[in-house]
Amino acid sequence: MNTLKVGDKAPQFTLSDANEQQVALNELLKQGKVLVYFYPKAMTPGCTVQAQQLRDHQAELAEHNVITVGISPDAPKRLAKFTERDELNFTLLSDEDHAVAEAFGVWGLKKFMGREYDGIHRISFLINQDGTIAEVFDKFKTKDHHQVVLDTLSDS
């Protein structure tokens, strides 16, 4: 796994959202900075806590001109259920073939309960409007992710 670093150019991508509409990173960047957060699976406990915290703090992120986008290997239908169930107020994108996760360097070997498998590592990237990586967030608990991001934004 070769995760992107601060200063790297973010890979351009276009993925389907929960409504099967195409969303392109370059279009989002016209509106502000983009927080791209990768998460393993919609509607699982850790991913739910992380999404709910981001939902509850969207206004604060918007004050910093940040748009939030979550990416997982889930199909759009599952993303739609997750969005509706948890009343999410940001975009979730489907990366079923994990090509975007691989491009960002967040797809790789994981270990859980003695089992090894390939999957998404929970890593987030703050992308500047020029398309460069401003911050990489890889050390946080799901319930604190939003605060780590907000603290970084407040310090810059």
Automatic annotation (TrEMBL):
It holds the Pfam family AhpC-TSA. CDD domains: PRX_BCP. The keyword Oxidoreductase applies. Keywords: Antioxidant, Disulfide bond, Oxidoreductase, Peroxidase, Redox-active center. Its EC number is 1.11.1.24. Thiol-specific peroxidase that catalyzes the reduction of hydrogen peroxide and organic hydroperoxides to water and alcohols, respectively. Plays a role in cell protection against oxidative stress by detoxifying peroxides and as sensor of hydrogen peroxide-mediated signaling events. This is thioredoxin-dependent peroxiredoxin. It comes from Pseudidiomarina halophila.
